[in-house]
Design goal:
Oligomer: single chain
Strand order of the largest sheet: 8-7-6-9-10-11-12
Number of strands: 12
Helix content: 25-40%
Strand content: 5-15%
Largest sheet: 7 strands, parallel
Radius of gyration: 22 Å
Length: 326
């Protein structure tokens, strides 16, 4: 009798080339929408599913695992996995994989875009043009801040942070960074300087947040940290929304305690249309598009699928998060 192939459930439509590795190693089922699958539907689908390819919009926890007795691998299509209860998966012998590396350069591009956009008031200017309020030229109209030769402070100098630092070299920026562990390669190759957090906050013209979300980094940037920044400085969050306290940030921007903020991620996410941050001209917000290029999202989807295909064929997945269960 032929071996029954496991069911593979994919929680979002993906490029066909990313799904190809899955078609020969399981019975493939794909959520037929570009909107997030409902929790009820997901739990129903997972009753007989052996492999799950999920997005950051899906919460993977004990409740979900209770409904998925056959589940053996979760391939999260993201670098971060704060939507996943990793210990819960590990306790049940379920492998978790992610997609590191493939989105580094694209996310660094977006991070630098946010820096340039908030410094040069791009969002504010574009809104004025669309509203028919093109300002009369004068020497003082829409003055922004130079990025070149400024001091950049990177909180979390991992892969993406190092890629941002490389871009900063083209702008002749001084680059400070803060990590729990020194990044000697970045110091030697990119000229980055390790400093403590207070020094980074106090000396940087641009503070870029690129740490993963964890209990230790939740609201890492709140009122005390914002008060240490220069009133001419800008905050950029391209990591996860809850790392920055939104109420403290709103107060700092409203009171001009800092010059501005640019956010690819927010807390909550999506940000409600009536959120007070959206009333401020010195706050630039985009809808979590750090990895949103055609090539990068295709590579992310393909890597997630390759993790599942490898596991189901008895091989080690390329990028396991909890390898101890293998």
């Amino acid at each position: 009798m032929a071996r029954q192939l496991p069911k593979i459930y994919v929680t979002r439509q993906l490029p066909e080339e990313a799904l190809t590795p899955l078609r020969t190693c399981g019975t493939l089922s794909v959520w037929a929408s570009d909107q997030a699958v409902s929790r009820e539907t997901l739990l129903h689908e997972l009753r007989d599913t052996g492999a799950l390819l999920s997005m950051v919009t899906e919460r993977i926890d004990d409740d979900l695992l209770d409904h998925a007795p056959q589940l053996r691998i979760v391939a999260n299509m993201a670098v971060g996995y704060d939507n996943v209860d990793v210990p819960a998966l590990t306790r049940r012998g379920v492998v978790l994989t992610n997609t590191p590396g493939v989105l580094t350069e694209t996310t660094a591009d977006l991070t630098f875009t946010l820096m340039l956009g908030i410094a040069r008031r791009i969002g504010e200017g574009e809104r004025r043009v669309r509203a028919g309020q093109w300002p009369v030229w004068s020497p003082f109209v829409f003055l922004g801040t130079d990025v070149h030769h400024a001091t950049l402070g990177i909180i979390g100098l991992g892969r993406i942070g190092a890629a941002v630092a490389r871009r900063a070299r083209g702008f002749d920026m001084r680059v400070l960074y803060h990590n729990r562990a020194r990044n000697k390669d970045a110091e030697e190759q990119l000229g980055c300087t390790w400093v403590d957090m207070d020094t980074l906050l106090g000396e940087s013209d641009f503070v870029v947040v690129l740490v993963p979300l964890s209990p230790e980094t939740r609201q890492l940037i709140s009122t005390p940290q914002l008060k240490k920044m220069k009133p001419t400085a800008f905050l950029v969050n391209a990591a996860r929304g809850p790392i920055v306290d939104p109420h403290a940030l709103y107060a700092a921007l409203r009171d001009k305690a800092i010059a501005g903020a640019a956010l690819d991620v927010t807390d909550p996410e999506p940000l409600p249309a009536d959120d007070p941050l959206l009333t401020l001209d010195n706050c630039l917000v985009v809808p979590h598009v750090g990895s949103a290029s055609i090539a990068t999202r295709t590579r992310m989807a393909t890597l997630a699928a390759e993790n599942i295909a490898a596991f189901l064929s008895g091989q080690r997945p390329p990028t396991p998060v909890n390898p101890e269960v293998l």
